[in-house]
Design brief:
By secondary structure, the chain is of the alpha+beta class. The chain is 20% helix and 34% strand. It comes from Kribbella sindirgiensis.
């Protein structure tokens, strides 16, 4: 049994507007837009598929108050592509963001609701990921996070050091999942979190128990009686185990 990362979930004051921004930014389509959620997927995508990690945006009235512990890195193919993408994103409503990155070859921006993301300089490792190069998670111990998440999912652990851990789907497609060491403390609930989904033949409750045996803990964020299970990983980052599909 195993799970796989199928989407990231973003909280937003205006989920429809933020969905339109990210659909334009990634060249994706809005596949659902209602009072409960706004879903984004690549054009012609057959969900779920490891070639992409989709985006699910949830309307939440609480404002963003701290730097996100989860963000996305966008891939580029050339210096010209990077510059053009940055300019296009700013026309869509992105703004420059200073998170203490200093003089680096990538550019840090914030979406219209203040969620930080990076537009990377061209890197060969991300040449086949699609528009999202990586989903990046701040953490205190990349080795521990790499161990947990490589056992939680059927993703391959490609690299682990004291400063980072890198995973990718075992099929070798789609974006990477990267855990980056930081001293920043976790403050409150994450504005962006990971959503996992078991395979169709697996049992949801059994898979939740397996994740608990790896170190996940149950979390009550006021979700009430829902079909999915809310858990926290070994560094207390919340994530959701969705129903099998």
């Amino acid at each position: 049994m195993a799970t796989r990362l199928v989407q990231i979930s973003m909280k937003a004051h205006d989920s429809s507007a933020l969905g339109r921004f990210w659909a334009e930014a990634l060249g994706w389509e809005v596949t659902a837009d209602n009072a409960e959620e706004t879903n984004l997927e690549p054009h012609g995508f057959s969900y779920p598929d490891p070639s992409a990690v989709c985006i699910d945006i949830l309307p939440v009235p609480a404002p963003k108050t701290a730097k996100n512990r989860v963000h996305v890195d966008l891939a580029t193919t050339s210096a010209t592509h990077q510059a053009d993408l940055i300019a296009r994103l700013q026309k869509l409503g992105a703004t420059p963001a200073d998170i203490g990155q200093g003089n680096v070859p990538w550019t840090v921006l914030a979406d219209p609701e203040g969620n930080e993301f990076c537009v990377l300089e061209p890197r060969p490792i991300y040449s086949d990921t699609g528009p999202i190069a990586a989903v990046v998670v701040d953490c205190a111990d990349p080795r521990a996070m790499g161990r947990f998440w490589s056992e939680a999912m059927d993703w391959t652990l490609h690299e682990t050091t004291d400063n980072s851990a890198v995973l990718r789907s075992a099929k070798g497609v789609g974006p990477y999942l990267e855990f980056i060491r930081t001293s920043d403390p976790k403050i409150g609930l994450d504005r962006i979190h990971l959503d996992l989904r078991p395979y169709p033949s697996d049992d949801h409750a059994t898979e939740a128990d397996r994740l608990r045996s790896l170190g996940a803990t149950d979390l009550d964020i006021g979700q009430g009686d829902v079909a999915w299970t809310v858990l926290a990983d070994v560094e207390n980052n919340e994530f959701c185990l969705l129903t099998p599909r």
